[in-house]
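Re-run with default settings, no changes from the original entry. Doing this only to confirm the output is reproducible before filing.
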Amino acid sequence: MKSPASWLAIGFGVGLVVGLNVAGLWPQIPVHATATHGQENFAICTGNVEDDLEAVYMLDYVTGDIKACVLSINTRTFQTFYSYNVSKDFGSIKNPKYLIVTGSADLRRGVGVPIAGAVIYVAEMTSGQLACYGLPWVPGRSGMNAPIQGTFLPLHLIKFRNAAIRGADG
């Protein structure tokens, strides 16, 4: 059996840890999360463009149009918009089946166009191809109070499956 002093010490230790966490003094581990969701003909996901700011990406499965928008930190409205059609990158496919997800990418600065902190991966399942896209992004852009239009930057395309899916185009 533990003595009352032992219980007091345990209680003090637990209380100290809880108190430091509540007060915000305990070392914090930053957590970054992105979200992806799709329905019949549409998918949506999020990804960082810079610290504490993200874009929302939307992919229309029917048209192959991918769009992104970013909130202005000043106006709290969407002021930066991007669009691109991914279907041209995968070739002519009658009934494409897309998947989309974002990933972190701290690509080298100073090499070509600066890219946002996330890249967008689009897979086309019937052709077995995967494309990676970036958003041209200049840090601080979200502070501008004027609408900005841009396009996605295709980074790379690979084939991840060599066998054709029978009946996928029919």
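Residues 1-30 form one domain. The chain has two domains: 1-30, 36-159.
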